[in-house]
Sequence to fold (182 residues):
Amino acid sequence: MALVVRPSRIHAAGVFTTAPIRKGARVVEYSGPRLTAEEANRLYDGAPRTYLYGLEDGKTVIDGEGMGAYLNHSCDPNCEIDEIKNRVWIFALRDIAAGEELLWDYNLYDDEDPAPCYCGSPKCRGTMYSREWMAKMRRKARKKAEKIAAERQATRTQGEKAKTTKTLEKRAGTSIPKRSVA
Fold:
């Protein structure tokens, strides 16, 4: 494949084709050392950028090197990833003209750090996270907000009970004995 790495309007450097690519063509392999997820986490803890790709087995991570690692993300990609016999390949989703930047949808998952998208596509979802992951994060945030609201309501109810007790005590001119806990 006639590919070149050069500056990208999306992010730093990107991969561009110097010749047309037909839809369905195998473009480049996403290659590099194989790590366990634990090794990858240990190596890149706190790193602002990685080129990691998690295989479908859920255990293996490729620490991307070479041309495949330089493809940028887009919410409207012209390429896609496919695993074939434990290897990761990038294929053309459509015919790609010479000079176009090669892009795939990262569909990030398993993190909560911001991952803003700068692809500029009219279809941009604003993040490199997958729609499924974002839905999961929204559900998690909604549950957390509901829990906080319930806790606030419980606190408010306790405060109202205390206020009512004090009002009754004032009206009666006596104090109401508190329940003893046995």
Summary: The chain has two domains: 3-128, 130-166. The beta strands are 3-7, 13-17, 26-30, 34-36, 52-54, 60-63, 72-73, 79-84, 87-92, 101-104.
